[in-house]
Amino acid sequence: MLSPVTGTLLSTNHRVVEQPEIANIDPYRAGWLFVMEPNMPKRNIRKLYFEKECFNWIEQESRKLMSAIGPQYEQLAATGGEVINDIYGNIPGLEWDHLVSTFLHTEKI
Question: Residue 11's domain spans which residues?
């Protein structure tokens, strides 16, 4: 997965590897993923999104997801649709490789 921050990975949360649902249930305490020491903090911070820029990025990613799952699901959030934990496992025809390349940006740039 591409990251706007470069650095040295100091620690990973092995508990989340064994029980991934912890990241959803308690992301800011027990569900942390890793600790990283940034190489160039001042340079890296310029690559992060803040305020309106962050909001716009989240909206853009949400639109990409809605497009990927199809028009029949597009209005669910607006109509009080129920949140699901496993989009891939619950949406027929959704391709894993497409999700990974689109949202984790794994294709060569």
Answer: 7-45
